[in-house]
Amino acid sequence: MMKYLSVRIYALFLCFILSIFKGHTQNQAIIDSLQSVIDASITDSVKAEALMDLAWQQMYADHPEALSLAHEGIRALDNVSSLRIRGYSYTVIGVVHWVGSSYDSAIYYLTKSSDAYQAKGDFRGLAAVYNNLSMVYQNQSDFARSLEYATLALQTAESLRDEKMIGNSLFTVGNVHYLLEDNDKALSYFQRALQTKIRASDKHNLQKIYLNLGSTYHNLKDLDSAAFYYSKCLDVSEHLGDYKALAIASTNLGNLEMDKGVPNEAILFYNKSQEIYSSKLKNDYDYAVLLHSMAKAQLQLKQYNSAEEYAKKSLALAEKLNDFKRLHSAHDVLSQIYQQTGDFKNAFYNVKHAQVFRDSIFNLDKAALLADIETKYETEKKEAQIILQEAELSEQKIKNERNLILIFGLSVILVLIASLYMLNQSRQKKANQLAQQQKELEIKEAYIHAALESQEIERKRFAQDLHDGFGQLISALRLNISNLQDSTHEVESQVAMVEKSESILVEMHSEIRNIAFNLMPVTLIQYGLKDALVELAQRINLSGRISVIIDTQEMSGRLSEIQEISLYRVIQEWVNNVIKYAKANKIIIQLVLHENELNLLIEDDGEGFDPDILKNNAGNGWRNIQSRLNRIKADFDLDSCPNRKGTSLIIDLPIVKQDFFENEPTFV
C-alpha cells in the first residue's frame, strides 16, 4: 500500500504544478475584475471592500503588494460607517500581517475586527476572528491564549449551529493539542472536524484537515494512514491552488521518507517545498520547519556542513519569530550535529537551550498542575476552618441562641423588602413588554397602512390610465367604424379610415404594454430579475436625462418568485426617488452572486443626504422598501452624507440552494 501511495503522491504533485498555470489565469481574471471595481468606484465603502478582496487574492502570490492594498483599504475606512465592512477590512489586514509573520500587528488588527463585529452583533464574523487569533497565538507558542480563543470560536459556532464554522473551530482546537503533542486528543478533534465538514458539504480548509490528520498519524507511527491523508491533502490542494498546504505536505512527505530510512528521497520532496517558498510563498514559521527537516536529512547523510547551515538558518528564523517550539527544534538538531562532529562544547550548549525552550512550551501543562495543587490546598484549608468554626459555635451556643430572634426578625424584614423589590421589578418588566408589544403592533399597522395606501394609489393610477388613455382611443375608433358603415364615402376615404383605425389599435397596444409593465413587467415573469432590470434601464435611458448602468457580474440562474419581485420593486422605488430628488447623472446597479448570499449595490453620483432623515420619514416609499426587504429577510446599509456627492444602498440577501434556480422558477 505504501508503494502505491508514493506513486500516487508523485503524480498528484506533478498535476498540481501543472494546474498552477491554469489557476493563475483564473485568478488573474478575478484580480482584473476587482481592479476595475476599484478604479470605477465612486463611494469609499465599495472601494474599501474591493481593495480588501484584492489584498486577499494577492496575499500569497505577492505579499508586499497585498500589504500595500490592505493599508490603502484601511485609509478608505475613514468615511465608512458600516461595521460589516470595517470588521471584514480589519480581518483581512490582520491575516495579511499574519502571513508575513508580523504577529503583533496581526493581533492588533484582528482585535479591532472583533470589536467591530461585537458592536454589530455579528457572531459569525466573531467566530472567524477568534479562529484567526488562535492561529496567531499558536505561531507565538502562547498555547494558553490560543486554546482560549479556539474554545471561544467553537462555543460561538455551536451557538449559531453553523456546521461549517463548527468544523473550522474543531480543527483549530485540534491544532493546539497537536502542538502540545497530545496526539490522541488532536486526532479526535481532527476526525470530528472532518466529519462535520463532509456533512456540511464544505471544502473550505478541507486540505488543512487532511494535512493535520496525516501529521497526527505520522506522530503515532501509523505511516500508511499518514501517507493516505497527505495524498488527500495534495488532491484537494490541486483544486484550491493552496501553495501553503502544498509546501507543508511536501515537507511532511519528506519527513515520511526520513522515517522509512531513505533521506535521498526525502530531499527530493524538501527541494519541491523550497521551490514554493522561494517563488510563491513567504511564511517564516513553515519555512523554519522545512529548514529543520533539511538539516536532519543532511545529518543522516553525514553532510555536516550543509546540516549545520540549514539548522542555523532555521534557528535564525525561530529567533526572529520568538517561537519556543521552533527554537527547541533548531537547538536540538544543532546539538546532534555538534555531537557527531565531536564539538561537545557546542553540543552541550545547544542541548541546554533545547531543554529550556521545551520546558517553556509546556508551561500550560505546568500551570494546570500548579492550579490543581493550589485547589487541593485551598480545599484542605477550608475544611480545617470549618472544623474550627464548628468548635467555636459549640462553645458559643448559648450566646448565639440569644441573637437568633434578632436575626430572624431581620431576615423577615429583608425577605419582605426583597419580595417588594421583585414584585416591582416584575411589574416594570411586564409594563416594558406591553410597551414593546404596542410599539411592534404600531409598526406592523404602519406597514399595513403603507401597503394598503400604496395599493390604492396604484389602483387610482391604473384607473386613470385606462380612463384617459383608452377612453379617448376607443371613442376615436368607434367614430371611424361608424364612418366606415356610411356607404356614401368614397373608397379612398374608407381606406384612409381603415389605416387610421389600424394606427389607433397600434397606439392602444402600446398603451396596454406600458400599463402592464408598470403593474408587473412581463420580462420579470418570463426571464427573471436580470433581464427585467436591463429593460427598466433601457426605458429610463431613452429619456436622455440620466444614464442607468446594469452590472450583473455574469449572474446566471434565477431566484425565487418573492425574492425577484421584492428586489425589483425596491430597485424601481429607489431609482425613481434618485431621479426625482438627487439630481444625479448616473446610476449603477450591481448584482454579485456568492455561494450563500446575493449582494445588491445601487450607486448614484447625485447629491448626498442625511440617512436619519429618510429613516424617520413617514413616507410610503421608504416604508414599502423596508417592508419588502423584511419580507425576504434581507439586510441593508445606506451610505450617504449631505456634504459629499454620491449615495450607496447596499442590500445583502441570504440565499440557500432551494432559492436559486438554474432554470426558470414557477410563477403563479
TrEMBL record:
Coiled coil stretches, renumbered: 370-444
Pfam families reported for this sequence: HATPase_c, HisKA_3, TPR_10, TPR_12
Sequence ranges assigned to domain Histidine kinase in this UniProt record: 472-657
Claim: Cytoplasm is one of the keywords in the record: no
Catalytic activity: ATP + protein L-histidine = ADP + protein N-phospho-L-histidine
TPR-type repeats, residues: 167-200, 207-240
Matches recorded under PROSITE patterns: HIS_KIN, TPR
CDD domains: HATPase_UhpB-NarQ-NarX-like
Listed InterPro entries: HATPase_C_sf, HATPase_dom, His_kinase_dom, Sensor_HK_TwoCompSys, Sig_transdc_His_kin_sub3_dim/P, TPR-like_helical_dom_sf, TPR_rpt
EC number: 2.7.13.3
UniProt keyword terms in alphabetical order: ATP-binding, Coiled coil, Kinase, Membrane, Nucleotide-binding, Phosphoprotein, TPR repeat, Transferase, Transmembrane, Transmembrane helix, Two-component regulatory system
Domain of life: Bacteria
Membrane-spanning segments: 404-423
The protein, known as: histidine kinase
